[in-house]
Amino acid sequence: MKVCIGLSGGVDSAVAALLLKQQGYDVFAMFMQNWHDADATLHGDCEWEEDRFVAEMTARKIGIPFYFVDLSRQYRQRVVDYMFDEYSKGRTPNPDVLCNREIKFDAFLEAAQRLGADMVATGHYCRKTEERGIYHLLAGTDGNKDQSYFLCQLSQEQLSKALFPIGHLTKPEVRRIAKEADLPCADKKDSQGICFVGKVDLPTFLQQKLEPREGDVIEVYDAYYADNEQYRFMERTLSSITEDGSANMITGYVSEDKGSGTGVPNHYLPERIAALSDGDLLRLSQPLHYDIRFETEVYRSGKKHIKKTRLKPNPYGAFLGHQEGAWFYTIGQRKGLNIGGHANPVFVIDTDIEKNIVYVGEGHTHKGLSRSVLRIAPEEIHSIVPGSLPEVGGMLRARVRIRYRQPLQDATLIMRESGLYILFDTPQRGITPGQFAAWYIGDDLLGSGTI
Length: 451
Description:
- The chain is α+β, with helices and mostly antiparallel strands.
- It has a domain at 2-206: HUPs (Rossmann fold, 3-Layer(aba) Sandwich).
- Helices cover 25% and strands 27% of the residues.
- The protein is built from 11 helices and 20 strands.
- Strands 5, 6, 14, 15, 16, 17, 18, 19 and 20 form a 9-stranded antiparallel β-sheet that branches. The protein has a 5-stranded parallel β-sheet with strand order 3-2-1-4-7, with helices on both faces.
- The longest helix has 20 residues, at 95-114.
């Protein structure tokens, strides 16, 4: 069998290539360029030339043919343009998931097949099995490096052509194999930055097409939620389906990477969940949107009693300053706000793209950071394993991840005509429109959808 390994210049794909060669496959390597340094859309420290050099050295060391393919046009059309469009709408796409679905296992696969490849292999930490003609995508053995989430949009056809040679290994084992084989990339650090573009931070990337424009930053106080009808509805409805009649609405916190869903879990009763109407579920899944308005007042200042204007105090919030465009911020973001004078960290809890306002809240457990229900629209539901979701009106207990490296969260999947609703046992921190929710039974990644 002829296998094309996507050789990136990193240690994971290099060891994957080595293992395939040792297992007797007819292996060749192909490096893909997804960006041109001269492209006017983005200027940054793109290191693809160095990566290509290392990849070619690695292929020579292993003793396999090496090819190069330019997929920059496809990458721009399918990934970059989509990202700009999503951010302009106040949503936060995941370029790595898109790159795998649209490039590595589509455009790259087609290029590999033109060179005679039967299968394409990558250095992802995940596994694949087949049962009765159905392919299953499983989490990697190394829980710290499991990358199945990044492949949550693959189809059965794409999985049928995919190999993941290192999915059963841990990262230290991969490093050890690379060193023992004296591969050129054995000590190379893992890549950072936008998928196959380089070390370019996101604001720099976005400013190439989304122009800065001054807008307000408004802090939301806790008092806002006591008088907000949507929040009261959520608390009242969620409490009505719990065992003890009281729902925990706040996400616990451990760390920046893994601090979501660590609070007290709610014990929801299945029969009460099933009794919720589609309207109730739809409303529960809606994020809070804020409308805090400020009035001005005239006062006299100084010895000369000069008339000045100031904002009247508002019990629901405060004006904190300005930002350079709400589309540059995402829910749960902490860095880049440049807001001082608070005892605890300040986070983005909502953005209003039309009015160019960023709403923030103080503290890891601010009420605006937590949500318990999200919705996947019918057209966004993607099942990797056919028939794995319940019929309309049915429910399924599963474990769900809404971002890479997040520990899997216990949840109930509720299928209705209006979409798939995910009710988490524990409120989730920073649920972000545009990201992907992926659901698992055990290690088996069954499907995903855009939030």
